Amino acid sequence: MVLETLLLSGVLTLVLEEDGTHVDSEDFFQLLEDDTCLMVLEQGQSWSPKGREKPKHSKDIARITFDVYKQNPRDLFGSLNVKATFYGLYSMSCDFQGVGPKRVLRELLRWTSSLLQGLGHMLLGISSTLRHVVEGADRWQWHRQSHLHS
What we know:
- InterPro entries: CIDE-N_dom.
- This protein has 3 helices and 5 strands; from the N terminus they run αβαββββα.
- 0% of the residues are buried.
- The protein folds into 3 domains: 1-48, Roll (Ubiquitin-like (UB roll)), CATH 3.10.20; 55-99, no CATH class; 101-150.
- The protein is an alpha+beta fold.
- The termini are far apart.
């Protein structure tokens, strides 16, 4: 149906518009971010960066955009998307997702619990080591005194 609508036929290849990476599996397709631009290439066609060449007299080295948004009105912190484009040719982005107050509290409690558990293990190890050192010193002192008396 889609092929007929787009007037396409034959062997088709799906690639990322920005760099020509082949989208060759359903798993890879599921990993793509929303609003990813794709290209469909017919047999014999290939991706090329035409139209993406840096203008000869351009002084544009990097363009960075920040997009702050909330996915849910109850989110404690907003989300942040940072996109950097270098020389007008290469771009990359990073998305920092904000979370709600319950999740922030849950993560804080989880980290605190892990920290206290680690501290408890460390204290048990230290006390066990000290017990062995003291017992060894007592045995050494008793052994030394028994040699002095004999």
